[in-house]
Amino acid sequence: MVDALVRSRRGSLAAGAALGGLALIAGLAFRAIRGGEPEAAPDTPFSQVDEDEARLMLRAMVAATVADGLVDADERRRLDEAVEAAGLDRDGRAWLEAELADPASIDAIADPVTDPEAAARIYAAARLAIEADTLQERQFLRMLAEALDVPEAATGRVDRALAG
After folding, report:
1. Which Gene3D superfamilies does this one have (predicted)?
2. What is the mean pLDDT of the chain?
């Protein structure tokens, strides 16, 4: 599915949108791990994101969205816009519907992650998907951060960056 992000029928515009989204998430996570120093961020932080990690990021976004048992209109709009911006075909939309119906568990998301920067990127992706305005969403993010071993200081920086 992630391959569809860069090889969609919409060509370079969709690929740019997909890579731009990965760059945003990766940059946020990099600054969170490094203590908020934007000048220390690499020029292309998304270059470190492989297809497996991108898939985990997407799964984390969906799981965060359904954490409170309800996908509200804004959350669904964000997911739909992400799918559209990425130029995903019908298979991608079918994947999204299947993930919404049966989202990944926190363990399924966190278990394959061994790199602290990848962990921060996955947390940032989940946080970007939601407003974290319900107790269940905040608990999901806390449990995800714990499972990924993302330091509290890093999650705080991601949260502040998205709030500001």
Report:
1. TerB-like (1.10.3680.10)
2. 76
Task: For residue 155, give both structure tokens.
Answer: 């999650």
11: left (phi over 0), alpha (psi -120 to 50) or beta: left
User: Contact 107/69 with Cβ under 8 angstroms?
Assistant: no
Tokens of 54: 């991108």
- Written as one string, the DSSP assignment of 93-128 is HHHHHHHHHSPPPHHHHHTT---HHHHHHHHHHHHH
Token pair for 107:
């363990």
In the block, which residue shows the tokens 């049966």? 102
Residue 91 confidence (pLDDT) = 72
- pTM recorded for the entire structure: 0.75
Neighbours of 69 (CB within 10 A): 7
Domains and CATH numbers, the chain: 2-35+43-163 (1.10.3680)
Type of residue at 33: I
